Amino acid sequence: MSALLICLMLLIFAIDTFSPLDMAIAVMYVVVVLISSSIWGRRGVLQATASCIGLTLLSYVLTHSEVFSAAASGRLLVGLLAICVTCVLVLRGQAATNALLAREEALRRSEAFLAGTQRISKTGSFSFKTPSGEMCWSDEAARIYGYPLDLKPTMELVLAHTAPEDRGIVQASMEQSLRGESEVEVRHRLLMPDGELKYVHVLARPRHTNDGEIEYLGALTDVTAAVLAEQALHRSQVQLAHATRVTMLGELAASIAHEVNQPLAAISTNGEACLRWLNRPQPELDEARASVTSILEASARATGVIKRIRALARRSEPQQAELDLKAVAEESVDLVRRELNNNHVALMLGLTPNLPPVLGDRVQLQQVFINLLMNAIQAMAACPPGQAVLTVQTYLNADGALQVTVSDSGPGIPPAAVPRLFEAFYSTKEDGMGMGLPICRSIIENHGGRIWAKPSAPDSPVAGATILFTLPVHDSN
């Protein structure tokens, strides 16, 4: 092709130089410049243009060097101008074409990056127009929904692979988008034809198009792996909390036996008294009736203690219910009362009555109370007689949350230990496992609250430490 172009230039030169035609033959070099743009790049076009200009000037010199001709000079200028203008236009066209090709390549690369990123992150994109219902989605979105990549998406296809229990949620979000309301965010499950269950998170925001419609642009993320990991973590936390409760019950064996033996002893004593009242020549029925009433009360108390112990020992999923925090605190104190007596700890209760209820699991909250109480009792083991004081308070704080404060008069928490106090496997006790307080934190945070430690001030005359936690008030309305 290059050789043919060179031959064409020489042909035009020969015609311009040796033919008797009295016209601007040099204008034909424009064809050469145009053809060169399809063969060579910028440098080749400039070289071809320079060659055409050189041949034009050479032809003029050979044919008009002896006699000046204004007409010939005019034709020379016309030819040179045509060659130069054509060169400029060709170069601009090449630059524009190259820029367009670069943009197309960048777009293809961007699309490839986007498709690869979506595949890796399991996040697809989609759009939905309202009220027409026109919809499109990316390849990854089609993969997540389990459809062929070339299948045109519709809301019917989305609902077809939505888990039956979640279709109401998805339909409600569709109705919201049809009304053109604010952004749509929904989490639901997909039930694949092979029985696979997927968890997805959909987020879309509206924008107004030029044709007056509202188009929702959104992202669809497959969060199955995260949900399964969260469920596995939850099961592990439940198992760990259960194991910790069983260990705690072992430490409270003496207190539990005492709590059960007290009503049993009362039952035995009242039973013997009842028999004496009935065996008299003239049975004292009123006294016997009172003894039986006491037996029933003691039996109910023993039954309550056993139920609480069984609940603490049982491994089960958390059961959310409205709870009176004061009652939960009192029940927890009853289970450690023997430990308080054996360690000569004075207990001061400041339990505000008629507090708003909290929504939570009774067993888990009792576990938090008992753990904090036992930690405080053990911290005061070295206190001189009469100086071990344990204070438990429940009240409504300034933020409108229920707050619990457990304070002791022990040696306190070293300042360096405070930031790590709720870390797993960290303990300030020589024989501690370091799991009690982390589990307490997990329980409180799962209930929507927070827990923290407040050591005594360095210049405070009173030693000891305070653990506080808050729980949100449950609004039943």
TrEMBL record:
EC number per UniProt: 2.7.13.3
Keyword entries, A-Z: ATP-binding, Kinase, Membrane, Nucleotide-binding, Phosphoprotein, Transferase, Transmembrane, Transmembrane helix, Two-component regulatory system
Keyword field contains Transmembrane helix: yes
Reactions it catalyzes: ATP + protein L-histidine = ADP + protein N-phospho-L-histidine
Superkingdom, taxonomy of origin: Bacteria
Domain PAC: 184-235
Residues annotated as transmembrane: 45-62, 68-91
Classification via InterPro entries: HATPase_C_sf, HATPase_dom, His_kinase_dom, HisK_dim/P_dom, HisK_dim/P_sf, PAC, PAS, PAS-assoc_C
Residue ranges annotated for the Histidine kinase domain, each copy included: 255-475
A single GO molecular function term of this UniProt record: ATP binding
NCBIfam families associated with the record: sensory_box
Record's protein name: histidine kinase
Species whose genome carries this gene: Duganella rivi
Source lineage: Bacteria, Pseudomonadati, Pseudomonadota, Betaproteobacteria, Burkholderiales
